[in-house]
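Table S2 (continued). Query chain:
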Amino acid sequence: MTAVVTAFPTTNKISTAIIEVTPDTARRWLESNNTHNRKLSPMRTAQYAQDMASGRWSFNGEALQFDRDGVLLNGQHRLSAIVVCGIPQTFLIVRGLDPTTQITIDQGTRRAPGEQLQLAGIPAGNSIAASLRVYLEWQQGRLFSGKTLGVTTSEVVEWASAHLDAVEELRRISNSGIRRVPGVPSIALAVALRLHEIDRVAADNFVSSLISGANLAADSPVLALRNRLAKAKESGIRVSTKDAIGFYVTAWNAYRDCRPLTRIQRPSGASWTVDNFPTPR
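Corresponding output:
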């Protein structure tokens, strides 16, 4: 076994302690004790760091685990996040475990975002939680932030707790049959929520026409959107979140302006940018 330069003496006795882990300590453990672990996920590290920096991270009793030789068995992402954000965090530390116990770590079922909302007292399923992720990513300007960190479950729960009316509106829209619209339901729900914030009656009519497709003129923006989404689905083409939102808003703006539209596409000869991305009116 490779020798480990450890912050802990070798021990066969299992012990626990609650410790405030500083960035320096986290860095030292990662450099000296993290010799046998899975590949680090920069995305997960960034999400944890984001929650820590915003104050959404809290002590929950989930341990950082070390074996009897001081090897870190579990917790590299949390330690890396402390290094990234530079903010100490309190953790339960468990030492002296048998090295073979690592194969049993993280074998439980992770709570889905919808389940986290339920635990927070907000009756909402995973589809609503997913739509809130899309909505927050869009409204917070993360569509054009480069390699997005993604919206964390903690952010979703925090926002939903402060905007219960919006969650109720999403539930109402979800029950309208919007899942029949071609494409990703969470994107359709997220856009619908934003449109309802602008004009509830117009948005209801827009969404209803988009769902049914009935009695739409050949130059209807709603029909153009349905055709664009349906074509992508039939061709097996994945429409990115950015593209889908752009298409929805393009159709909505034409609908609001009573302007005919037969085709919906990205900007001519270009991709979406912060400057040319449509803003719903």
